[in-house]
């Protein structure tokens, strides 16, 4: 939801459907999405050598600050999900209403962890 809102705030339009597609390698309209998607896929895989490689390529393509930002964002989302899942935190009705179109578009209710977030 945060990515969608930041895109809207900039006045851009981007099809985020690729985010829920494991074969998606790039999202047109998001700068450097190819390397960022690769970084997040490898980050989630926890493969140390592959992560070191993609961090180096991310730094070469962008800069060291981009590596730090990407790692920070990925880590923050991991933290938020773990806290929400661990506490059984559910979205309130207002958040559910705001996010329902995104849930539908990306098929997020099909993930096992949706039961924790969506209260299903």
Description:
With 120 residues, the chain is mainly α. It has one domain (2-118). The chain has helices at 2-9, 33-45, 48-61, 64-87, 93-106, 114-118. Helix 2 runs antiparallel to helix 3 (48-61) and helix 3 packs across helix 4 (64-87).
Task: Reconstruct the topology from this structure.
Layout: H1 2-9, H2 33-45, H3 48-61, H4 64-87, H5 93-106, H6 114-118
Order of helices and strands: HHHHHH
Specify the structural class. Answer: mainly alpha
What's the β-strand tally? 0
The value of Rg in angstroms is 15 Å
| Average of per-residue pLDDT values | 82
- Ranges with pLDDT <50 over ≥5 residues? none
Number of helices: 6
Domain count: the total is 1
Helical content (DSSP H or I, runs of 4+):
55-70%
| CA-based shape | globular
Strand content: under 5%
Short key terms for the protein model shown above:
6 helices; 0% strand; mainly alpha; 120 residues
Summary, kept brief:
The protein has 120 residues and is mainly alpha-helical.
């Amino acid at each position: 939801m945060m990515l969608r809102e930041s895109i809207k705030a900039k006045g851009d339009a981007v099809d985020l459907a690729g985010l829920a597609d494991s074969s998606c390698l790039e999202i047109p309209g998001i700068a450097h999405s190819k390397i960022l998607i690769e970084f997040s896929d490898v980050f989630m895989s926890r493969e140390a050598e592959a992560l070191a490689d993609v961090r180096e390529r991310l730094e070469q393509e962008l800069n060291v600050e981009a590596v730090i930002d990407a790692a920070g964002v990925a880590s923050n989302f991991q933290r938020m999900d773990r806290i929400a899942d661990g506490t059984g935190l559910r979205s309130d009705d207002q958040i559910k209403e705001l996010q329902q179109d995104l849930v539908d578009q990306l098929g997020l209710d099909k993930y096992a962890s949706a039961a924790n977030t969506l209260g299903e």
